[in-house]
Design brief:
Blueprint (H helix, E strand, L loop, with lengths): L4 E6 L20 E2 L7 H8 L12 H4 L9 H10 L3 E4 L6 H11 L4 E5 L5 H5 L1 E4 L5 E4 L10 E5 L6 H13 L1 E2 L2 E2 L5 E6 L20 H4 L4 E4 L8 H9 L8 H19 L3 H20 L6 H18 L4 H13 L4 H4 L6 H15 L6 H7 L3 H10 L4 H14 L4 H10 L6 E2 H15 L2 E6 L5 H13 L9 H14 L6 H17 L14
Parallel strand pairs: 2-12, 3-10, 3-11, 4-7, 7-10
Antiparallel strand pairs: 1-13, 5-6, 8-9
Helix pairs in contact: 3-9, 3-11, 9-11, 10-11, 10-14, 11-12, 12-14, 15-16, 16-17, 17-18, 18-19, 18-22, 20-21, 20-22
Amino acid sequence: MTDGVGSFSRLMQIRPSADGRRQLPCRSVRCRGENGMATAKTLRATSAQPNAPSSGAQSLLRQLGIIGIDHLEPVILAAIATEQPLLLIGTHGTAKSLLLSRLCEALDLTWRHYNASLINYDDLVGYPLPDDAGNLKFVQTPASIWGAEAVFIDEISRCRPDMLNRLFPIIHERRIQGLPLTDLRFRWAAMNPPSDPDADEGNYVGSEPLDPALADRFPYIITIPAFATLSAIDQKLVIQSSASRTVPPELATRLRVSIGAIRQRIDATDPGLSDQFSEYVRLFIAALRHKGTSLSGRRAAMLYRNLIAVSAASSPKSKSEFAATCWQAVTASLPQTASGSASTSPAQLLAIHREAWSVSLLDQSDPRKLLHAEPNPVRRSLLALDLGTDIATRSACVADALGSLPPGARHALAFHLASRETAQVSASVGEQIADLYSQVAVEQKGEQRMWRFGPSFEATKRIDAFLARPPDDALTDRDFITNLLISQWGAGSLRGPADVDAIVTSWVRQRQELGTPTNVSVDGRAK
C-alpha cells in the first residue's frame, strides 16, 4: 500500500483443487421467468383513482360546481350518508369551504361556519344569563350553534388549545357543556397541511398538527388535490367557474336520492362481505403496526364501517373494483395525515393494502395466511420457501427480506439462500441474490485513491486488521467477511472504521439468527 493509493486482492478458492482441501460450496440460484409477477404497469393501474365517473356521466360534485375531485365522491357521499365527522385537508384555494357550503345548500341544511383561529366560546353558545329561577341560560345569537343541523369548523389546525378542547365534544359527541345538540347531524372541518419545519416552500406556518386524540375522532380524513395536480381541462373549468351559482332544485333532489340509496345499500350489506372487510381491516392494521404505525381499536371499527359505506357509495362489481374501493376507503381513513405522525410512505401503504386484501380472500387453510401472520421479513421469506408457496409469493417475500436488511446482513441472507435447494425465485430476485452472493464468495479486488489519515484511509487500516491473521486452510466466516469488505471498499461504500464495524456486526448477527455457526464475534475477532 502506498501513501496515496490502497489496494486489496483477496482470493477465495472456488474451483476444486488438486490437493483435495475442503472447498466452498458454490451453488447457482435457480430462477424462473417473471410470468404472473406484478409489474410497474400493474402498479400504476391499481393505484389510479378508483371508480371515477366516466366522461359520459358527470359526478354529482362536478354538477355542484366542485371540479377535480370526482374520484373522492364515493368517500364524501359515504360521510354524508353515515353523518360521520369529515375533515378536509388541502392547500389554500382548493374549494374546501365551497364544497361544504354547496352540500349544505343542496341538502337544505341550517348550518354554521366558524373560523377556529378567531372563534370565542361565546360565539358558539351565546351569552350566559340567569333566569328568574336562578338557572343559567344561554342567550342565543344568529351565530350560536343551537339549532344548527351542520357545523363547519374552518382552520381547525390554527385553533387555540383551550377552544380546541371545547370543540372536541361537539365533533365527537354532538354535545356542548354536557348539553345535547339535538338538531346537529353533520360535523365538518377543514385545515391546511400541518406545518413542516424542514420544508423549503409550501409550508403553512401556524397550521399545527391535530392532537392525535382529536384526529382520531374524524372517521373520514380526505386530502383535496391542489390546483397544479388537476388536468388541463379541469384547470380551465376551475378558472372559468363561478362561486356565486346556486344549486338547481333537480340537482338537490338527485343528491338526496343518491344519499338515501347509499343508506339502503349500507343496511343491506351482505354478511359475507362484512366478514371479509373485518378480516381485511385486521390484517391491514397488523401489517401497519409492523411498519411502526399503530391504530386504535376505535379507528379499526371506523375503518370497517368506512369500507362498508364507501362500497355502498361506489357500488363495485368485480374483485378488482372492490380492492380499489378498499384502497380508496383506507386512504381516507388514516388520522396520521392530520396529526402529522405518518411514518409509513404511500408506497408502503399500497403494498400493505394489496397484501391484506389478497390474504383476506384466502381460505383459512391457505399457507399464505401463515406468511402474513409472521412479522419478521427474514423469517417470513424462509417460511415461504419451506411451505412451497408459488414463485410469485416466494419472490416477493425474499425481495422484501433483502430490502429490509442493511449491508452485511443482506449479504448473509443471500449467502444462506444461495445454498438452499428450495430457493427457486423469479429472475430479478435471483440476480439480486447471485450478485450479493458473489461479493462474499468469489475473488474480490479493489483500488481507490485516498488522502492519508482521512476517514477512508482509516477504513483501509481497519480492513488490514482482517488480513493480518495467520493462514488458515479452512474456509471460515473471516474469509467471507474479508471478501465482503473488499467488495464494499472497492465500491467506495466504506467511509470510515464505523462502516467496517457495522458490516461485520450485521453479517455476524444475521448469520447467528439464521442458525449458522460462525467463528467470528460481533467485534470481528476470531472466536
